[in-house]
Every structure is written in structure tokens, then in C-alpha cells.
Amino acid sequence: MLLSRTADSLFWTARYIERAENTARLLEAATRLSNVGSSTEQVSNEWESAVLATGMEELFEERYGEASARTVVDFLAFSEANPSSIRSCLEAARANARSVRTAITIEMWETINAAWLELKRYRTFGQSRGELMEFLRFVKQVALSIDGIANRTMLRTDGFSFFQLGSAIERADNTARILDVKYHVLLPAGDRVGGGLDYFQWTSILRSVSALTAYHWVYRESLKPWLIADLLILNEKMPRSLASCYGNVTRHLDSLSKTYGRQGKAQRMARSIHSEFRNRDIDTIFHTGLHEFVEDFIGKNNKLGGTIAEQYLF
Amino acid sequence: MLHSHMLATPSANLQAQLIWGAMTAFDEMSVDGSQCRTPYDLVRTWLDSLDPEALKRQSAEAEMLFRRIGITFAVYGEADAEERLIPFDLIPRIIAHDEWLQLEKGLTQRVNTLNAFLADIYGPRECIKAGVIPADLIDQNPQYRPEMIGAKLPGDIWVNIAGIDIVRVDADNFYVLEDNARTPSGVSYMMENREVMMRIAPEVFYDHAVEPVDNYGDELLQALQSVAPANARKDPTCALLTPGPFNSAYYEHSFLADKLGVELVEGRDLFVRDAVLYMRTTLGPQRVDVIYRRIDDDFIDPLVFNADSMLGVPGLMTAYLAGNVTLANAVGTGISDDKAIYTYMPELTKFFLGEEPMLKNVPTWRCREPEALSYVLDNLADLVVKEVAGSGGYGMLVGPKSTKDEVEIFRAKLKANPDDFIAQPTLALSTCPTFIGEGVAPRHVDLRPFVLSGTNGVNIIPGGLTRVALKEGSLVVNSSQGGGTKDTWVLAR
User: Which of A31, A80, A112, A214 is the most buried (most CB within 10 A)?
Assistant: First the structure.
């Protein structure tokens, strides 16, 4: 049993940390692609789609207008005006963790607090590419540490489940959003199959979810767009795939219903979403429309977050 | 009149002894700068083994540890200082074994008196009837809560957690400077200072018998559970009520909830139904039996006190007075923090316990009494003047450390509202060796031990919070006024 407010804060601490890490990966992938040095038009698209993948495009246009390396890095990494920027996420995670200081372990608190202190050391404007890379590495490291600490130090009680639910739902959302923005490069495009730029686009998708190496180990063949989609949507072995995230979501919701001796709408919803992944293959998804599938998922995933909050009185 | 000012006015002899400058402050480590008092032998040896550079390094390491742990303290009125560290001084403050035994007895007596006094003023009012204390001092005190008249509390205990501020002026004399019976803070520093000290200088603890302080959480939980309502379950549910993360002592609240293993709740986590208190949980409403509240009376229940309070719980007083939940400390204990009430503590001890007070009060002039007032006005530049309801070092005048203008401003305040003030001689507070960046120098200190009362008796963890005035010559140790803290070692033999 937990205070409802505590469950809420644990859920959101995990979400913010996960979001910070995902944004760091997006920026890494975009930076890398802009290094390739192809036509400027394509490169600028890359920055734009990074913003699109975070779902903050309206605020971005209002504040900056044009998407370039400078504006997008500023917006996604450091902007205080962007509630989903890496800095805002780390600050929100810390504020949430502080308000439930007793529900997390000392190690977890010290790490989140140290990250927040460390954040102040980074220049928020006019940094070199090297400094930016260093910053993004730091953010990923923080997320990895917190994940590890959660697994190594937290009691396996309901608090742990709420924390893990936050991670899984946010992670699924991030993977789905990348697919939502990039689905068109995965679609069969007639004459333009597997050109140089496509290849970079595909690797860029995989990099933004740390899945490039995984792809080769799982499929043992050269990059195929439908296999990339398979990996990110259906493959349960891939920790950032939608199916894998929903494996975690259902597991932790089941664990809550066991602890509390009752289950509700959230459990039923999660199971129904999870079964959609099990009963489908990638051909059917392409056939019925990749874009529609992903959009539909983003909506359901969001709704589940709301249902969990309702069921446990956040 | 029994409560004549003569009872409170210090003798000429004592005054001379206490007034700052009339004699050099007593240094707890070395009487004359060379000779080391025995209890400090281990500190001397440790300091001798370190060069100034090593001391500086360890000091920096300690600060880093505190920052990482997140022990911070917000200072009201400083916008950019949402979270500031209270400076920690590495050099511990020592209390000899037999000194502690004396203090322990005196503190127990003091807190027993406070509990008897509170039970009496909200009950039969014997001390007023007997003329020990004037009725208007009680009835017109803003901290007196008529809602509590006739309240029956488990074990008749009103002050479950007290912080009694103690100062020392020489080898033999400890004085009580203030009683804190509302929501005394600082105990987390007592525990964390020890933790950091043991991480930084484990070698000092080796072989030396210093009384541990880390069982405070267990003792506090026992004291809280002991006062659960009679109708509570066998294993009563306690919770710590905090105003939230923006409160200056929030770190301490979360720290204590962790040590107690109880939920850290805010007002919005609680609700009252049919005069029973519940917290909102993921499993639905759960009954709460004991609230360790770190919120002042004024904010605890908007239906009874401050109606604008968002921090409290509507209906909490109903549940409390119905005996369905215990609040620790009780509502209405703030009156014993009043500095005018303080001046009557020696007489109250005699009256309620029939004992001679073991801990002395600092001699005090009650400015409400005309003769005392005229003396205070004549000697303003030599005295410390405090607001009776003030705390945290705010609203006070330290005569010898103030400009002429400041003294005159206070003179006007005193004349306008003499009832609001008391005055005391400027004490030559004892000093302790303190690391000041370039080396070690004596700085003034006080001590706040924490006294727990439950139906299981009075319990004091050997130690407390030592506060140190870091500025040379300064006598103000409050953390809100730039004071620091030290680890406090009570020697086990």
C-alpha cells in the first residue's frame, strides 16, 4: 500500500528520466546524421523530425521558427520553456523524487540529486559539438544508473511496480513516436529502394533507440525496413520494442493486482494492447497501414496512463 | 504579589559573571589556551595529527557529502536560496559522561514540568489559582488554544518531542535558554552530522567510547506508538505530517519519516470522515492513529484555525478531540515556548514536582513589570532583548553588538509594548574550537538535546544538536542567521 501521491510521483520520476534519455538519443542520432553531409534539405529535416518525435513542435515553432542544429539542441536539451527538454525532465524528476524521498532508496536519491547538481555545470548555450556529446553521454549515463539502482536497491513492492510502469509506458511512447515520425522512410518507395540516404535514415532510427547492433544480432542480414519495424514493434527480445514494453506493463500491473488482491480496467486494457502484438505479424501491420497502427497505439498507450492514475487515485 | 519581578531579576553578582566582556568566555577544550580539559583529549590528539591542509580537505569532503545527501535548509526571505547547506564544522563538541548524567536528569525534570504545566492550564488551572503564574499571561497568550480546554490526552502527555536549548558559561553551569515544545527541528542534523563524521574520520571513533545517536528513530517511533488512541489497533499506524517540499525543514521531515518507517504525508493526502482520520492510498482509505505533525497549530485544520490554510486537514480537530487520532505534539503546546512563560519555569517545577530545579534559567527581566522595564531601558546596550513569541533568532536585540540606532529602535518598541519583551544579560556563551578556513579558533556554541516523552517514560538520546556561531565574537547560533553545526559527542565513560 502506498500513498496515492507517492505512487503518482514514482510513476512520473521514472517517466521523466526515461524521457530525458530518449531525447538524448534523438539528439545524438540527429547530430550523427547531420555529420553525413548530404543535401542541406535532408539534414534540416532530421532536426525537424527530432522535434516532431518529442511531440513539442508547436511550442518549438512559436519560439524558434526554423529547425537547425542550434535551435533544436537548445530547445530539446536546455530550454526551460520546453517542459520536455532534458533539463526540464531532470529537474522535474528531481522535484518528484524529493517529494517522495522516503519511497525511493538513498542510492536512488543521491544519484538523481547528484545529476541535478551536475546539470548546472554544463553550458546551456553556444557549446561545441564535443561538449554537447559529452552532455548527452552524461544524460544517458544518469538514466542507466537510475535503472540499475532501481533494480538493485528498490524493494519489490508496489512502489517498484509504479516506477517500472512509468518507465515502460514512457519508453513505449518514445519508440512509437519515432516510428510515427519516420514511418515514411520504412515504407516501400518504388524506385528509391535502399539508396545511400535511406540507409542512413534507417540506421538513424535504430540508433535513436539503441538498436543498431541488436538488429544485426537478431536478423543477421542487411537492413530491411520491414525488419526494422518488426524489431521495434513486435520483437519481445528487443527491450525498447512496443511488445517488450507491454510485456513489462502487464507484468507490473499483474503484480499490483496480486499485491492488492483486486484488478481493474488498467489490467484489462494492458492485456488487450499486449495481445495485439502477439496476434499480429509485420506484414499485416504494413498491409493495414503502419502509420495508422502506430497512431492508434500512441492513443491507447496514453489512455492507459490515465486509467492507471484513475484506478489508483493519483 | 507572588510573581514579583524579584524572582526573575538576576543578582548583581550573577550579572557580573554573565555579562559578555566582564570575563573571557569559557572554552570547552582549553581553559587558558594551552591546557586541554580531559574530555577533549581525543579531539586534541586528532587535531594534532592533521595539518591545516588536511583539515581543509576533510572539510570540503564533508560539504560534498552533505550536498549529495541533499541535506538542505531553506531560509525564509532569501529568494535565490531555496536550498542552502548549513555549514558543518568538523571539530566535534564533547560532553563528558558525568556532565551528561546531570543534564539528563535536569532535562527529564524540565520536560515533566512542561507536561504537568500544559495538562494543568488546559485542565484544573491549579498553578493559576495558587498564584504561581498570572492568569493573563495564559489567557491572553495567542498560543493558548481554548479549543484544548478539558482535552484528555493519552498518558496526559502534551509534549512528545521537546528540544531544550542549553548554554554553558563555565565548567559547572548549564542554563536553559529556551524551551521548544511546538515542533522543534534539527534532530536530523544530530544524526547526519554523526554519519558524515564517521565517514570522514573513522579513526577518531576507533577505540573511543562515544554514545551512539542512531537509535533516535526507533525511540521516537516507540514514543509515538505509545500514545496511540485507546481504540487504535494493536499495531498503530503513524504518519509524519509535513507542509511539503517548500518548507525549510522538509529535508528533515523526509529523513525522519524514513528512519521511522512511516508515511510522509501532506494535508492533501489526508481526510476526515465520521471523526476518523484516513490517508488516501493506492488501496483506498487507510486509518491513521498517530500524527507526528511538523505543522503549526494555526495551519492544522482550516475549519478551526486559519481558514486559508491549504496545508492542514479539514476536520482534523474533530477527530483529535474525539480521541480518534493523537497529534504529537499536542495542539496548544506553543504556549510553553513563550519567553515570558519561560521565566516561571523554576517556580512551576517546584509547584508541580515539589523539586528544586536542576537546570537553571538564564536570569530574565520581564519587561511587563514596571521596575524590570525601567532597569532594562537604562541598560539596553548591555542586554539581550527578545520578543516573547519570537523564535529562530528573529526579532531580537543583542545590545553590545548593536549600533546606537538599533538600540533606539528597540527602545521605542519596548516602550510601546513592554508585555511583548523579556531581557537577559548577554551571556558569555562557552566556546569550542572551530575550523575557520585558515586554522582553528574558538567560537560560541549552544546545545539542543531532544527529549522524547511517551507512556513508556522520558527518553533522551545522548547528544543533541550543537549550533556554532561562525562569525568571530557572534553569539547568534541560529541556522537562519548564519550559524553552523557540529557533531556532539557524549562520552560513554
Answer: A112
| DSSP-derived secondary structure letter, B428 | -
> Position of cell 519567553?
B339
Determine contact, residues B213/B197, Cβ cutoff 8 Å.
no
Min Cα distance A101 → chain B (Å) is 6
Q: Could you tell me which chain A residue has the CA closest to the CA of B242?
A: A99
Distance CA B475, CA B400 (A): 11
Three-state DSSP string of chain A: CCEHHHHHHHHHHHHHHHHHHHHHHHHHHHHHHHHCCCCHHHHHHHHHHHHHHHCCHHHHHHHCCCCCHHHHHHHHHHCCCCCCCHHHHHHHHHHHHHHCHHHCCHHHHHHHHHHHHHHCCCCCCCCCHHHHHHHHHHHHHHHHHHHHHHHHHCCCCHHHHHHHHHHHHHHHHHHHHHHHHHHHHHCCCCCCCCCHHHHHHHHHHHHHCCCHHHHHHHHCCCCCHHHHHHHHHCCCCCCCCHHHHHHHHHHHHHHHHHHHCCCCHHHHHHHHHHHHHHCCCHHHHHHHCHHHHHHHHHHHHHHHHHHHHHHCCC
Average pLDDT over residues B286-295: 97
Check B268 against A4: CB less than 8 A apart.
no
Beta strand pairing call for B263-265 and B238-241: parallel
Record: contact B257-A102, CB cut-off 8 A: yes
| Cα–Cα distance for residue pair B176/B364, rounded to 1 Å | 11
List residues of chain A with CB under 8 Å from any CB of chain B.
Answer: 1-7, 95, 98-102, 106, 109-110, 113-114, 117, 158, 162, 256, 260, 312-313
Percentage of residues in chain B with pLDDT exceeding 70?
89
Q: Do B263 and A6 touch (CB under 8 A)?
A: yes
User: What average pLDDT does chain A have?
Assistant: 89
pLDDT number for residue B81: 43
d(C-alpha A130, C-alpha A276), whole Å: 43
Q: Which three cell numbers stand for residue A152?
A: 538493485
Nearest to A101 among B254, B283, B284 (CB): B254
Given a cut of 60, whether residue A81 has pLDDT beyond it is yes
| ipTM of the complex as predicted | 0.77
Q: Give the global pTM.
A: 0.83
- Distance from C-alpha of A97 to C-alpha of A10, rounded to nearest angstrom: 7
Pick from B76-85, B208-217, B270-279: least confident: B76-85
Cell numbers standing for residue A14: 521514472
Per-chain mean pLDDT for chain B: 87
Does residue A121 contact residue A155 with C-beta atoms inside 8 Å? no
Other CB atoms within 10 Å distance of the CB of residue A196: 9
**Residues 6 or more apart whose Cβ sits within 8 Å of residue B428:** B18, B19, B20, B21, B22, B23, B24, B25, B26, B169
Alpha-carbon distance of A155 to A104, in angstroms, equals: 9
Determine what percent of chain B is predicted with pLDDT higher than 90. Answer: 58
Block residue for cell numbers 579558533: B441
Which grid cell sits at B151? 482535552
CA angle (A149 as vertex; A144, A153 as ends), nearest 5: 165
pLDDT above 70: percentage of residues in chain A: 94
Q: Per mean pLDDT, which range of A246-255, B113-122, B429-438 is the poorest?
A: B429-438
The band of B77, judged by pLDDT with boundaries at 50, 70 and 90, is very low
Of A120-134, B239-253, B354-368, the poorest mean pLDDT is in A120-134
CA dist B339 and A269 (Å) reads 62
> Measured between beta carbons, which residues in chain A are less than 8 angstroms from residue B279?
3
- Residue B257's identity, in one-letter code, is A
